[in-house]
Amino acid sequence: MPILLPIVPFNPLQTWRLHEICTWMTVGMLAYMIIVHGFIMLLVKWPDLPVAPDSIAGLMCYVCDSRMLGLFHEGFATVGEKSRKTQLQGMRAKYFYGRITGSSGKKRMGVDYIDEM
Q: How much is the average pLDDT of 30-42?
């Protein structure tokens, strides 16, 4: 599309036909992109997030009552950044968002670790 837009002639001495071809090719490409975007928005299953995770309170809503909090024992708060990062990478934990059974036994939507550790 960036190749077609600069060659759209706006000079009256150039032919009208070239102007029409370039303009409609650009419009066609934009329409194709909008259609593909619409199909992607309809076909992809987006998770239902009860709370927006863009704040500390929203993030805490997802991790509270999660079993993964037991993995992060009190030792992480007292060590340095490099040591903490090394320990976390050594855990090699994987996480998911979905229906979880928290440490209290209640079922809810949240973030937890996968039991493949």
A: 94
**Cβ proximity of 4 and 25 under 8 Å:** yes
Q: Measure the CA–CA gap between 19 and 9, rounded to whole angstroms.
A: 5
107 Cβ contact list (under 8 Å, min separation 6): 99, 100, 101
Give the pLDDT confidence score for residue 116 in this predicted structure: 64
3-state DSSP helix/strand/coil % of the chain, to nearest 5:
45, 10, 40
pLDDT value of position 29: 92
Please name the residue ranges forming H helices in the chain.
Answer: 16-43, 56-63, 75-78, 81-91
Identity at 84, one-letter amino acid code: R
